[in-house]
Description:
Blueprint: E1 3-9, H1 28-32, E2 42-47, H2 52-65, E3 70-75, H3 84-96, E4 105-110, H4 116-127, E5 133-139, E6 153-157, H5 165-182, H6 191-206, E7 211-214, H7 221-234, E8 242-246, H8 252-260, H9 277-280, E9 285-289, H10 296-308, E10 310-311, E11 320-321, E12 325-330, H11 334-339, H12 345-351, E13 354-357, H13 368-383, E14 388-389, H14 391-401, H15 412-425, E15 430-431, H16 433-447, H17 457-462, H18 464-468, H19 472-486, H20 491-498, H21 511-520
Parallel strand pairs: 1-2, 1-4, 2-3, 4-5, 7-12, 7-13, 8-9, 9-12, 14-15
Antiparallel strand pairs: 5-6, 10-11
Amino acid sequence: MKRRVAISILGTTLDMGKREDRWNRWRPNVGLCQQPGLFIDRMEMIHDSHADALAQRVVTDIETVSPATEVRRNIINFRDPWDFSEVYTKLRDFARGYAFDPDSEDYIVNITTGTHVAQICWFLLTETRIIPARLLQLSPPRDREAGGDLAGTHRIIDLDLSRYDEIAKRFAVERADAASFLKSGISTRNAAFNRMIDEIERVVIRSTAPVLLTGPTGAGKSQLARRIYELKKSQRKVSGEFVEVNCATLRGDQAMSALFGHVKGAFTGAAAERAGLLKSADKGVLFLDEIGELGPDEQAMCLRAIEEKRFLPVGADKEASADFQLLAGTNRDLGQDVRKGRFREDLYARLNLWTFRLPALRDRKEDIEPNLDFELRRYLDNEGESVTFNKEARDRYLSFCMGPEAAWSANFRDLSASVTRMATLAPQGRITVEVVGDEIQRLKAFWHPIGDPTDTVVEQALGKDATNRLDRFDAIQLADVLHVCRQHTTASAAGRALFAQSRLEKKSSNDADRLVKYLARFNLKFEDTGRSR
């Protein structure tokens, strides 16, 4: 049977007592050795040199109530028992110098005595298994005036969380709730997107470092940034406001003033002092959307503000400070901008610690249906009217949304606008096949306008001179082919979409070959079409 060893700090207040009436008081370290069913073979008592007399008295009293218990005194002098760094370091050094033998001894750490700082340190040392022990909490008897047994009661706390399935389940639920919160409660199905959201959740809760959100316009960067802020605030990671800045709207002198503020009279029209957006984000979150649009001077100032939390308002001779957490968004390739000298390399390096690319809607078509339901709920919240699809209309709309003709060039903004239009036009709050049919034609017109294609996809593929030499018939047909190619990753997939009808009439077909031959008429390869990746 293992010997039981208790590690305990002498309670300079709770364990006190010189006169005989001390036996009428509850004293934790004496009571620890009186607990029924918890015999202590050895106690490692920790105290400082100033409490030597009290320690000796408690040792003598333990010998009286439990003669078989060995008590060893360990002197640790704390300069400041409320200094976390000092207390943790000295208790850790004690633990590392102690010859633990878990095979033959069972260790418990008494957290009843000592400062709250010491109790926290005991928890950390046992939770990390630096001390291979369980925690023990002692409580005084309920009725101290009744006399009799003053040993009190005890409770042992085992930090092996694997034994607590309910705690593990609750932790998993809380993790899932946080991820769902970042997704606005939408049950997304795209596995890669869900993995990214899980990683973002871990990062924003554990880290205060900048986060860079990239992806095409309309992919949801602004909405995700606000949800990140709300998650941080719910976790008490920030206490200030969420400040969003569209850097594409900042130009010239007004950019510096808007970001960093100005003093009165700094420039013509500066009739009053202005704090600036960085100052407004103090203790909160600053979201610099389209950060790639900032000018070189603003980039330099932002870098210093991010690293040092200090900046100089326009016209000021005294620095201002703001302690904010930074989120940044862009639809540009900042790495390419760095190589071209358009963006500061040091600022990009500072932003690029945590970079998450939000995929385009066309790359996560399995998420269109849950987002469709989300948009209908949002319409209800905004307009106070519940709108639903009939089954045939819903099936037709989803079939179009996930088909090759749906470009989703503005991503979720296109989807949100589309649902809003259908909900507004739905008779008696029911979206019908007719409403869906009209909306599909409207979307096709947005994405593939009929008219001169020379300034769009054809010119991008052939160049202006070659485009101008095309007949209008060929230009319009080629434009549609190129649009379809851009929505698919292989020539075979694009060919199946382009030749869907004619291939049904053939016993065998090679759609990819037909497409390759068509493109070759214009000296194009499938790789030249600018397809989505």
